[in-house]
Hints:
Bound molecules: adenosine-5'-triphosphate
Largest sheet: 6 strands, mixed
Distance between the termini: 26 Å
CATH class: Alpha Beta
CATH topology: Rossmann fold
Number of helices: 8
Number of domains: 1
Strand content: 25-35%
CATH architecture: 3-Layer(aba) Sandwich
Shape: globular
Number of strands: 9
Amino acid sequence: MVNMTEQFERFIELRDITVKSNGRVILNIQHALIPADRITACIGPNGAGKTTLLKLLDGLIQPDTGTVRYSFAKKTALVLHHTPMIKASAKTNLSMVRDADSTITDEAIAQVIEKVGLGKLASSPAHKLSAGERQKLCLGRAILQKPNLVLLDEPTANLDPNTTEQVEEMIHQFDAQNTDVIFSSHQLAQVQRLAQYIIFIDHGEIKEKGPVGPFFLNPQTQAAKRYLHQELLAD
Ligand SMILES: Nc1ncnc2c1ncn2[C@@H]1O[C@H](COP(=O)(O)OP(=O)(O)OP(=O)(O)O)[C@@H](O)[C@H]1O
Protein backbone atom coordinates (compact mmCIF):
# COMPACT_ATOMS: atom_id res chain seq x y z
CA MET A 1 0.00 0.00 0.00
CA VAL A 2 1.91 3.03 -1.24
CA ASN A 3 0.94 6.49 -0.07
CA MET A 4 1.49 8.78 -3.08
CA THR A 5 1.04 11.96 -1.06
CA GLU A 6 4.17 11.48 1.02
CA GLN A 7 6.74 14.26 0.84
CA PHE A 8 10.40 13.69 1.55
CA GLU A 9 13.26 16.16 1.55
CA ARG A 10 15.40 13.59 -0.27
CA PHE A 11 14.16 10.37 -1.79
CA ILE A 12 14.77 7.57 -4.23
CA GLU A 13 11.98 6.96 -6.72
CA LEU A 14 11.45 3.44 -7.99
CA ARG A 15 9.29 2.97 -11.05
CA ASP A 16 8.23 -0.25 -12.83
CA ILE A 17 11.01 -2.19 -11.13
CA THR A 18 11.56 -5.88 -11.58
CA VAL A 19 14.66 -7.73 -10.48
CA LYS A 20 14.96 -11.33 -11.57
CA SER A 21 17.17 -14.15 -10.45
CA ASN A 22 17.34 -17.33 -12.51
CA GLY A 23 14.21 -16.20 -14.35
CA ARG A 24 12.28 -15.71 -11.09
CA VAL A 25 11.04 -12.24 -10.13
CA ILE A 26 12.52 -11.46 -6.70
CA LEU A 27 11.61 -7.75 -6.59
CA ASN A 28 8.53 -6.22 -8.17
CA ILE A 29 7.79 -2.56 -7.36
CA GLN A 30 5.44 -0.55 -9.53
CA HIS A 31 6.08 2.80 -7.89
CA ALA A 32 7.59 3.81 -4.57
CA LEU A 33 9.32 6.76 -3.01
CA ILE A 34 11.97 5.59 -0.56
CA PRO A 35 12.90 8.30 1.95
CA ALA A 36 16.59 9.21 2.16
CA ASP A 37 16.28 11.92 4.80
CA ARG A 38 15.94 9.92 8.01
CA ILE A 39 16.48 6.44 9.49
CA THR A 40 14.37 3.91 7.62
CA ALA A 41 14.00 0.22 8.42
CA CYS A 42 13.31 -2.37 5.79
CA ILE A 43 11.56 -5.35 7.32
CA GLY A 44 9.85 -8.51 6.13
CA PRO A 45 10.16 -12.31 6.16
CA ASN A 46 13.24 -14.26 5.11
CA GLY A 47 13.66 -14.18 1.36
CA ALA A 48 11.24 -11.25 0.96
CA GLY A 49 13.76 -9.16 -1.00
CA LYS A 50 15.23 -6.78 1.60
CA THR A 51 18.88 -7.37 0.69
CA THR A 52 18.01 -7.17 -2.99
CA LEU A 53 16.31 -3.81 -2.41
CA LEU A 54 19.34 -2.44 -0.53
CA LYS A 55 21.65 -3.59 -3.36
CA LEU A 56 19.34 -1.94 -5.89
CA LEU A 57 19.26 1.35 -3.96
CA ASP A 58 23.07 1.28 -3.76
CA GLY A 59 23.43 0.62 -7.48
CA LEU A 60 25.31 -2.64 -6.85
CA ILE A 61 22.68 -4.39 -8.96
CA GLN A 62 20.68 -3.02 -11.86
CA PRO A 63 16.97 -3.76 -12.28
CA ASP A 64 15.85 -6.00 -15.15
CA THR A 65 13.14 -3.43 -15.90
CA GLY A 66 12.31 0.02 -14.58
CA THR A 67 14.15 3.02 -13.24
CA VAL A 68 15.80 4.14 -10.01
CA ARG A 69 15.94 7.92 -9.66
CA TYR A 70 17.71 9.79 -6.86
CA SER A 71 16.46 13.24 -5.91
CA PHE A 72 19.97 14.09 -4.65
CA ALA A 73 23.61 13.60 -5.60
CA LYS A 74 23.89 9.99 -4.55
CA LYS A 75 26.85 8.88 -2.46
CA THR A 76 25.95 5.59 -0.86
CA ALA A 77 27.86 3.07 1.23
CA LEU A 78 26.49 -0.47 1.40
CA VAL A 79 27.37 -2.77 4.29
CA LEU A 80 26.27 -6.30 3.52
CA HIS A 81 25.70 -9.00 6.06
CA HIS A 82 28.64 -11.17 4.98
CA THR A 83 31.54 -9.02 3.86
CA PRO A 84 34.65 -10.99 2.94
CA MET A 85 37.96 -9.84 4.43
CA ILE A 86 41.35 -10.26 2.79
CA LYS A 87 44.04 -12.11 4.76
CA ALA A 88 45.65 -8.98 6.11
CA SER A 89 45.36 -6.76 9.15
CA ALA A 90 42.21 -4.94 10.17
CA LYS A 91 43.95 -1.69 9.27
CA THR A 92 44.88 -2.93 5.79
CA ASN A 93 41.31 -4.05 5.20
CA LEU A 94 40.07 -0.65 6.27
CA SER A 95 42.66 1.05 4.04
CA MET A 96 41.18 -0.68 0.98
CA VAL A 97 38.58 2.09 0.73
CA ARG A 98 41.45 4.11 -0.77
CA ASP A 99 40.96 2.13 -3.98
CA ALA A 100 37.85 4.26 -4.50
CA ASP A 101 39.11 7.46 -2.86
CA SER A 102 42.86 8.04 -2.80
CA THR A 103 42.48 11.25 -0.76
CA ILE A 104 41.75 9.29 2.45
CA THR A 105 44.72 9.92 4.74
CA ASP A 106 46.54 7.59 7.17
CA GLU A 107 45.35 9.87 9.92
CA ALA A 108 41.70 9.48 8.91
CA ILE A 109 42.11 5.69 8.90
CA ALA A 110 43.74 5.73 12.34
CA GLN A 111 40.95 7.95 13.69
CA VAL A 112 38.22 5.69 12.34
CA ILE A 113 39.85 2.55 13.77
CA GLU A 114 39.72 4.21 17.20
CA LYS A 115 36.21 5.51 16.63
CA VAL A 116 34.81 2.04 15.92
CA GLY A 117 36.64 0.64 18.94
CA LEU A 118 39.22 -1.48 17.10
CA GLY A 119 42.34 0.50 18.07
CA LYS A 120 43.89 -2.46 19.91
CA LEU A 121 43.09 -4.84 17.04
CA ALA A 122 44.42 -2.70 14.18
CA SER A 123 47.27 -5.14 13.48
CA SER A 124 45.22 -8.33 13.99
CA PRO A 125 44.31 -10.44 10.95
CA ALA A 126 40.89 -9.22 9.82
CA HIS A 127 39.67 -12.67 8.79
CA LYS A 128 40.14 -13.84 12.38
CA LEU A 129 38.09 -11.04 13.95
CA SER A 130 34.84 -11.92 15.71
CA ALA A 131 31.50 -11.22 14.02
CA GLY A 132 31.04 -8.03 16.03
CA GLU A 133 34.58 -6.79 15.35
CA ARG A 134 34.15 -7.46 11.63
CA GLN A 135 30.91 -5.53 11.61
CA LYS A 136 32.62 -2.59 13.30
CA LEU A 137 35.36 -2.77 10.66
CA CYS A 138 32.73 -2.72 7.90
CA LEU A 139 31.05 0.29 9.51
CA GLY A 140 34.48 1.93 9.70
CA ARG A 141 34.83 1.44 5.94
CA ALA A 142 31.43 3.03 5.46
CA ILE A 143 32.39 6.03 7.65
CA LEU A 144 35.56 6.58 5.60
CA GLN A 145 33.54 6.67 2.37
CA LYS A 146 31.69 9.77 3.70
CA PRO A 147 28.36 8.70 2.21
CA ASN A 148 25.17 10.75 2.34
CA LEU A 149 23.16 7.53 2.54
CA VAL A 150 24.31 4.36 4.25
CA LEU A 151 22.59 1.06 3.52
CA LEU A 152 23.01 -1.62 6.19
CA ASP A 153 21.92 -5.21 5.73
CA GLU A 154 21.03 -6.72 9.12
CA PRO A 155 23.74 -4.68 10.87
CA THR A 156 23.42 -6.44 14.24
CA ALA A 157 22.53 -10.01 13.25
CA ASN A 158 24.38 -12.46 15.53
CA LEU A 159 25.82 -9.70 17.71
CA ASP A 160 25.61 -9.69 21.51
CA PRO A 161 23.58 -6.98 23.31
CA ASN A 162 26.61 -4.84 24.12
CA THR A 163 27.97 -4.86 20.55
CA THR A 164 24.43 -4.33 19.24
CA GLU A 165 24.22 -1.20 21.38
CA GLN A 166 27.56 0.05 20.03
CA VAL A 167 26.44 -0.52 16.43
CA GLU A 168 23.13 1.22 17.11
CA GLU A 169 25.08 4.17 18.50
CA MET A 170 27.05 4.32 15.24
CA ILE A 171 23.77 4.36 13.31
CA HIS A 172 22.63 7.30 15.46
CA GLN A 173 25.91 9.06 14.73
CA PHE A 174 25.43 8.65 10.97
CA ASP A 175 22.01 10.23 11.37
CA ALA A 176 23.33 13.03 13.60
CA GLN A 177 25.92 13.86 10.94
CA ASN A 178 23.29 14.11 8.22
CA THR A 179 24.09 10.73 6.71
CA ASP A 180 20.79 8.98 6.30
CA VAL A 181 20.36 5.31 6.96
CA ILE A 182 18.29 2.52 5.50
CA PHE A 183 18.78 -0.77 7.32
CA SER A 184 17.18 -4.19 7.26
CA SER A 185 16.45 -6.04 10.46
CA HIS A 186 14.42 -8.85 11.95
CA GLN A 187 14.72 -7.31 15.42
CA LEU A 188 11.47 -5.41 15.84
CA ALA A 189 12.46 -3.84 19.17
CA GLN A 190 15.54 -2.46 17.44
CA VAL A 191 13.47 -1.20 14.53
CA GLN A 192 11.24 0.67 16.99
CA ARG A 193 14.28 2.07 18.83
CA LEU A 194 16.07 3.33 15.74
CA ALA A 195 13.78 3.89 12.80
CA GLN A 196 11.41 6.71 11.96
CA TYR A 197 10.03 5.05 8.85
CA ILE A 198 9.20 1.48 7.81
CA ILE A 199 9.24 -0.30 4.50
CA PHE A 200 7.55 -3.68 4.79
CA ILE A 201 8.43 -6.14 2.02
CA ASP A 202 6.81 -9.48 1.34
CA HIS A 203 7.35 -11.75 -1.67
CA GLY A 204 9.40 -9.08 -3.46
CA GLU A 205 6.74 -6.37 -3.14
CA ILE A 206 6.49 -3.33 -0.90
CA LYS A 207 3.24 -4.16 0.84
CA GLU A 208 3.26 -1.26 3.25
CA LYS A 209 5.33 1.80 4.10
CA GLY A 210 5.00 4.71 6.47
CA PRO A 211 6.01 6.20 9.82
CA VAL A 212 7.07 3.63 12.39
CA GLY A 213 4.46 4.42 15.10
CA PRO A 214 1.30 3.87 13.04
CA PHE A 215 2.81 0.82 11.33
CA PHE A 216 3.33 -1.02 14.60
CA LEU A 217 0.08 0.20 16.15
CA ASN A 218 -2.11 -0.47 13.17
CA PRO A 219 -0.59 -2.38 10.25
CA GLN A 220 -2.82 -2.13 7.20
CA THR A 221 -2.12 -5.38 5.35
CA GLN A 222 -2.73 -8.97 6.36
CA ALA A 223 0.87 -9.78 5.43
CA ALA A 224 2.25 -7.17 7.84
CA LYS A 225 -0.14 -8.21 10.61
CA ARG A 226 0.94 -11.83 10.21
CA TYR A 227 4.65 -10.95 10.12
CA LEU A 228 4.45 -8.75 13.22
CA HIS A 229 2.47 -11.39 15.07
CA GLN A 230 4.96 -14.14 14.19
CA GLU A 231 8.03 -12.04 14.99
CA LEU A 232 6.60 -10.94 18.33
CA LEU A 233 5.92 -14.58 19.22
CA ALA A 234 9.52 -15.42 18.29
CA ASP A 235 11.06 -12.56 20.35
N1 LIG B 1 22.27 -13.99 -6.25
C1 LIG B 1 21.13 -14.66 -6.14
N2 LIG B 1 20.92 -15.79 -6.85
C2 LIG B 1 19.77 -16.47 -6.74
N3 LIG B 1 18.74 -16.11 -5.95
C3 LIG B 1 18.90 -15.00 -5.22
C4 LIG B 1 20.09 -14.23 -5.26
N4 LIG B 1 19.96 -13.19 -4.41
C5 LIG B 1 18.73 -13.33 -3.87
N5 LIG B 1 18.09 -14.40 -4.35
C6 LIG B 1 16.75 -14.84 -4.00
O1 LIG B 1 15.94 -13.68 -3.97
C7 LIG B 1 15.02 -13.73 -2.90
C8 LIG B 1 15.18 -12.50 -2.06
O2 LIG B 1 16.42 -12.59 -1.37
P1 LIG B 1 16.94 -11.47 -0.37
O3 LIG B 1 18.30 -11.90 0.11
O4 LIG B 1 16.83 -10.15 -1.02
O5 LIG B 1 15.87 -11.58 0.80
P2 LIG B 1 15.90 -10.99 2.29
O6 LIG B 1 14.56 -10.38 2.50
O7 LIG B 1 17.09 -10.11 2.47
O8 LIG B 1 16.00 -12.29 3.15
P3 LIG B 1 16.67 -12.59 4.62
O9 LIG B 1 15.79 -11.95 5.64
O10 LIG B 1 16.60 -14.09 4.69
O11 LIG B 1 18.08 -12.07 4.59
C9 LIG B 1 15.26 -15.03 -2.18
O12 LIG B 1 14.31 -15.98 -2.61
C10 LIG B 1 16.66 -15.42 -2.61
O13 LIG B 1 16.80 -16.83 -2.64
